[in-house]
């Protein structure tokens, strides 16, 4: 190979700096050549799709209709309707187990509230915060502050655009008025010219008839001040013209009156000299007639003020500011405009657990200080007892209205799945026993509609991957196993390091054939694992508590049994798939360095 890394004929492999690899030069590659296409996705796309719209089966989707939740929705609506009257709605606390439609119902009502407020031109804003993600007072206030700053900027931009349109309309009106005045002035000048012209200059193009013999001879009668002869066929004195001084004076008076009338009209329009009339009153066709502005300067002054307000807004960073400064920015952003604000805090118990009730206290007490806006709170929680840990003042102001969402039964879940499946799947994609089975599985787990939707969606995905034309009962059972495994993987992955070490100790014992594991055996392996990764060693009592927590999560099964005169002990067994769980634990960077440890098990005397 030459030093210039020249291309080798017949191979895409090149050597650069002494290492071999594949060339990334695709200039000579025929991408349109069908032979080079391996058909990786062609086979997968060859079958008929099962899904019509998969998104309607996801928890994030808010349907247009929520079966079996009309009572709760109507109760929320009767509370929040006060916002459409410009009043402050009562705070609402929504309780219910996971998957009972709390969040979907609240979002549905909020969407209806915002659309109705726009219909009746009543300013009303709804903001949603998931406290499981945004779980500190700083983050909640910062996120809300930035959202309202963005809304204020949008309203300022819309207001400035309206004012600029008003200025354009005013420019057009003044230009049209000036054109009409110029046209009127030209008409006046033309009338003056016609008045000063020769009285015998007939309008008709025909030559004037000859004067009678009685007045023939000369113009002595004109020179002596006599009256000129009448025009033939003219009987109206108003049609007679005379060049005398009196006639000229009369013409001048008419001109003055015309100018005066024109001046009066301009004063009425409010565009002329202020001394000519009352400039604060505009005619009905004036652009400023239906506004509070008197003139152009007032409009321009408001535009400048709005632009200055927009420049004064400062976005809150997600870290770094004192909390009181964040609250001050949030307060000013909310109170900038007149409106009713509804703040929806989902998983509100997570916020209380993480940062206490300071956030709720501040939000629930804002209305006593706000001047323009009003704030209402909707809290959503799975824990019916979380208010027991709140300050009594917060509890009394926050829980003004309470709505409980009961679990769904199997029939209600079936209605929900049928309602969604009509939109989610192609026609004939479901066998008759799929929806009843999904509803039965979910009803066994506290009536969780989210679980039922996940089952149906996962069953459809499994059927689609196997290129089946119809979803059958077997796909639902496979989906049940897959969801359960995915849940276990997620729970194990998020365990603290000490809990992972305890669980890994149990797995090592089971891999070596130890059954009915006791706490002492787990503690011995646990200590060796801590030494391997240089972790702190907890006491045996604390390890026993961690085993109880794993039992509560359903990862292990710990049963207290009596050994007679030898006392009582806790027998432990694994409740999740061993190999998959071990793989998740070893994906942790700290546990992946553990060498293969063979547990030392003390000999037992079996009863």
From TrEMBL:
<comment type="function">
    <text>Involved in regulation of DNA replication.</text>
</comment>
<dbReference type="InterPro" id="IPR050311">
    <property type="entry name" value="ORC1/CDC6"/>
</dbReference>
<comment type="similarity">
    <text>Belongs to the CDC6/cdc18 family.</text>
</comment>
<feature type="compositionally biased region" description="Basic and acidic residues">
    <location>
        <begin position="254"/>
        <end position="268"/>
    </location>
</feature>
<dbReference type="InterPro" id="IPR014277">
    <property type="entry name" value="Orc1/Cdc6_arc"/>
</dbReference>
<keyword id="KW-0547">Nucleotide-binding</keyword>
<dbReference type="InterPro" id="IPR003593">
    <property type="entry name" value="AAA+_ATPase"/>
</dbReference>
<dbReference type="InterPro" id="IPR015163">
    <property type="entry name" value="Cdc6_C"/>
</dbReference>
<feature type="domain" description="Cdc6 C-terminal">
    <location>
        <begin position="503"/>
        <end position="585"/>
    </location>
</feature>
<dbReference type="InterPro" id="IPR027417">
    <property type="entry name" value="P-loop_NTPase"/>
</dbReference>
<dbReference type="InterPro" id="IPR036390">
    <property type="entry name" value="WH_DNA-bd_sf"/>
</dbReference>
<feature type="compositionally biased region" description="Basic and acidic residues">
    <location>
        <begin position="229"/>
        <end position="243"/>
    </location>
</feature>
<feature type="compositionally biased region" description="Basic and acidic residues">
    <location>
        <begin position="283"/>
        <end position="293"/>
    </location>
</feature>
<feature type="domain" description="AAA+ ATPase">
    <location>
        <begin position="88"/>
        <end position="409"/>
    </location>
</feature>
<dbReference type="InterPro" id="IPR036388">
    <property type="entry name" value="WH-like_DNA-bd_sf"/>
</dbReference>
<feature type="binding site">
    <location>
        <position position="408"/>
    </location>
    <ligand>
        <name>ATP</name>
    </ligand>
</feature>
<dbReference type="Pfam" id="PF09079">
    <property type="entry name" value="WHD_Cdc6"/>
</dbReference>
<protein>
    <recommendedName>
        <fullName>ORC1-type DNA replication protein</fullName>
    </recommendedName>
</protein>
<dbReference type="InterPro" id="IPR055237">
    <property type="entry name" value="Cdc6_lid"/>
</dbReference>
<feature type="region of interest" description="Disordered">
    <location>
        <begin position="179"/>
        <end position="293"/>
    </location>
</feature>
<feature type="compositionally biased region" description="Acidic residues">
    <location>
        <begin position="203"/>
        <end position="221"/>
    </location>
</feature>
<feature type="binding site">
    <location>
        <position position="420"/>
    </location>
    <ligand>
        <name>ATP</name>
    </ligand>
</feature>
<keyword id="KW-0067">ATP-binding</keyword>
<feature type="compositionally biased region" description="Acidic residues">
    <location>
        <begin position="1"/>
        <end position="16"/>
    </location>
</feature>
<feature type="compositionally biased region" description="Low complexity">
    <location>
        <begin position="272"/>
        <end position="281"/>
    </location>
</feature>
<dbReference type="Pfam" id="PF22703">
    <property type="entry name" value="Cdc6_lid"/>
</dbReference>
<feature type="binding site">
    <location>
        <begin position="100"/>
        <end position="104"/>
    </location>
    <ligand>
        <name>ATP</name>
    </ligand>
</feature>
<dbReference type="GO" id="GO:0005524">
    <property type="term" value="F:ATP binding"/>
</dbReference>
<dbReference type="GO" id="GO:0006260">
    <property type="term" value="P:DNA replication"/>
</dbReference>
<feature type="region of interest" description="Disordered">
    <location>
        <begin position="1"/>
        <end position="39"/>
    </location>
</feature>
<keyword id="KW-0235">DNA replication</keyword>
